Amino acid sequence: MNDHGTRTGALLDPRPSRIELVVLDMAGTTVADDGLVERAFGAALPDATDEQLAYVRATMGESKITVFRHLTGGDEERAHAANADFEAAYARLVDEGHCAPLPGAEDALRRLRDQGRGIALTTGFARDTQDRILAALGWNDLVDLALCPSDVDGRGRPHPDMILTAALRSRVSSMAAVAVAGDTDSDMRAGRNAGASVVAGVRTGAHDTATLRLAGAGHVLDSVAELPDLLAAREG
């Protein structure tokens, strides 16, 4: 013990933890959206009101079945039918070639791997849609994990479950060794709820800087391409 009653060996290390795992959103963060989500929602709910479309925009990043439950007033049968139509419409858009990485995203993935960090991609889409996107982009060998709400009993963002599951599967030393990046407020809240030490918003998707900051973003980047440099600078 020292004079203040603190165990000398228990003093906290002032250096930030090295980031071992980076958890990244897909549409709007690493994958170009270009209105594809809204087009797929339009196919699922062709009579959607302006208020409903505003809700879709506000809840970008959340589990799609959760969004449809709200839009259908909790009618499970209608929600699941609409979600199936949404996923089918989005899959068609991907199959037609309307799927591309955001500028600098693929290079960022490669740089993160070169830095020795694990990479997990998370989404609010269903498994089949996520797999189609990864196959279309040729990213299966670039990432270590790809998780969707069905992998965590349906608890998508802003719940922390996908991030915590990625951390457990990656066997990180602590949640302080995890960084999260995304383009929506639900990404930011999920990162904070999980206890990640780096929660970064990107301005390439659904929500603006003020929204991302309000939801807990510690950093706001022009794009995910800036993330490898941010992490490297943070670790000196």
From TrEMBL:
It comes from the Bacteria. InterPro entries: HAD-like_hydrolase_sf (IPR050155), HAD-like_sf (IPR036412), HAD_sf (IPR023214), PhnX-like (IPR022468). It holds the Pfam family Hydrolase. NCBIfam families: PhnX-like (TIGR03351). This is Phosphonatase-like hydrolase. It comes from Nocardiopsis alba.
